[in-house]
Amino acid sequence: MTQLSPDQVAGNWGAIASDYERAFENLSAQYAAHALRLLALRAGDRVLDVAAGTGTFSLQAARAGAEVLATDFAPGMVARLRERIAAEGLGGISAEVMDGQALALPDASFDVAASVLGLIFFPDLERGLGELRRVLRAGGRAAVVCWRDPASLPLMTLVRQAIQRVAPEFQPPSAPPVWARLAGAEVLKIRMEAAGFRRVEVVTSTAIQRIDAPEAYWAGFTRSAPPLAYLFSQLGPERTAAVGREYIEALRAQSKDGVPTLTVEACLGIGHA
Fold first, then answer.
1. What is the value of pTM for the model shown?
2. Sign of the C-alpha dihedral, residues 87, 93, 96, 101?
């Protein structure tokens, strides 16, 4: 059996749900909004969100009047999303623990299905995409979001550069991260078509990340995803603190109007059943 990476273990995600939300939701919310526009969501559409995380796509769809089921394999993520649903008093939305590679849902039961930076972590990408296609009704629409170019992802590029300056002897994992297996427009289009989606179109989705409080951002960023938590545990507290100082300085060097600002590109694929 192939060993799972830290980001393929449900408990690892549940443990960092709030930190993930603070670090990445601003980005994923922008991609989710773009996806909903391209999906031409209608009030009353039955919507499935796979690997929903803390639920930005699901919440936006529910606010627009859709009937939403959000699923994630991490009970901690689902618990956090349920808290958010209750806090908003939203109707027409529920969240359930479910493996996106084997959805406990009938065929052809949703008008819209989506996965925003979630399916990219699945051990079996083909099964995940196949399940997304299986649950769509005839004429249904799906959206899948992945990173455009993992090698130039700004948030991670700054981490690598900071580590190199602080601890040049440190050897990060040599293998590409699992989420880089599904990246770039060509790969996304090919994989969606192989899963049975028709009329697949992939566009670049650009999000702007403004980091008003770099020190506070860094404090949570080190725990905001399982691979990051593992990486900084290997570095240890002293070197992590030093990397943080370099990272914050690099962020401030990219300020716009006095606020560190990053432009982060993803690929957004739209396919039809």
1. 0.95
2. negative
